[in-house]
Design brief:
It comes from Amycolatopsis viridis. There is one protein chain. Helix content is 44%, strand content 16%. It contains 11 helices and 10 strands. The longest helix has 24 residues, at 67-90. The model is unreliable at 3-24 (pLDDT under 50).
Length: 322
């Protein structure tokens, strides 16, 4: 073999192994972070445990839907890792009294039967039970603490347009296409919104939403991206409308508005805390093994493929990112 052929073979081997540089390789890794990895074997061990111990997982296996559990394991592993870093940075600790009470009662002790349940709703319940229960409960309490810390201090400003009719085109595809148009350049979003307003679409410019006034909205992707980002998402599965928006400002130190809605529930606070992790997932350099799908920042979840994500997150080309 000549020198050039040897070099080509070496380079090819590097590509197969996902890079010759330092740091972990995607081979054998379920999740790669910038500084460490979660292995496929670790995920498989939890998956095997789920099938052994949880009737719901056995039911999903019979339905050939065990991939839902695999993706949920990876999702929870990613969020657990990022949450631990954020909690340390923010000085958050779980409420000890609540932790002791949960551990004493252990709501995760009973297996999930899964009879008649939506398969997509079963996977989180199954994975919560096969992970370390103390770890799961601490994660939940830390998410609530993070949501509580920023709930009345967070505000976003955005401009948006909407996709309310399909016109023979899939609404998701139309919304993502519109998001790509809006992200094409610094002035593109304003041009698209102006044209849509003239065409009778529902649009708005300069919307300011404090999280304290809208706890449910504070769980959406709008609250998890930096200024100069375009997002496309469906706010509610019950309604067919899609929103395509550009975030103009995101403030985590906004003064209280004095118009706070009802105190959010623990579930809402946890969902707000989870959304606040979104920038840190990006900064952690998370890479998912394709066997488990792709990271979907809109849902803070895994999708089977890029064609099945719940929306889009696109930085505006040519715009300065904070």
């Amino acid at each position: 073999m000549g020198r050039s052929q040897s070099l080509l073979a070496a380079l090819t081997a590097c590509l197969v192994l996902a890079g010759c540089g330092s740091g972990p390789s995607q081979v054998g890794a379920a999740v790669l972070f910038a500084d460490h990895e979660i292995t496929v074997d670790q995920v498989q061990d939890l998956l095997d445990k789920a099938v052994r111990e949880q009737p719901a997982a056995q039911q999903l296996a019979q339905q050939h839907k065990l991939d839902l559990v695999g993706r949920e394991i990876v999702r929870q592993v990613v969020l657990h890792d990022v949450l631990a870093r954020v909690a340390q940075r923010e000085g958050l600790v779980p409420d000890q009294q609540a932790l002791d009470q949960f551990l004493a009662d252990d709501p995760l002790a009973e297996p999930v039967s899964g009879t008649g349940a939506d398969p997509s709703q079963l996977a989180p319940q199954v994975v919560n039970r096969v992970r370390d229960h103390r770890e799961v409960i601490i994660d939940s309490l830390l998410l609530q603490a993070l949501g509580q810390k920023y709930f009345d201090r967070t505000s976003v400003t955005f401009d948006y347009t909407s996709v309310t009719s399909d016109g023979g085109v899939d609404r998701r595809a139309k919304a993502i296409d519109k998001a790509e148009q809006m992200a094409a350049g610094p002035a593109a979003a304003a041009d698209v919104i102006r044209a849509d307003a003239a065409a009778g679409e529902r649009t708005s410019v300069g919307e300011v939403v404090p999280a304290a006034q809208a706890p449910d909205l504070a769980t959406l992707v709008l609250f998890g991206v930096p200024p100069g980002t375009v997002v496309a998402f469906q706010p509610s599965q019950e309604q067919q409308v899609w929103i395509v928006a550009i975030v103009r400002a995101r403030d985590l130190n906004a003064p209280p508005s004095g118009e706070q809605a009802m105190q959010p529930s623990p579930a809402q606070l946890a969902a707000i805390g989870r959304r606040l992790l979104q920038p840190d997932v990006d900064q952690a350099g998370v890479r998912i093994n394709p066997r488990y799908g792709v990271w979907d920042p809109v849902a803070m979840n895994l999708a089977p493929s890029s064609a099945e994500t719940t929306g889009a997150v696109l930085p505006v080309k040519g715009a300065a990112q904070p």
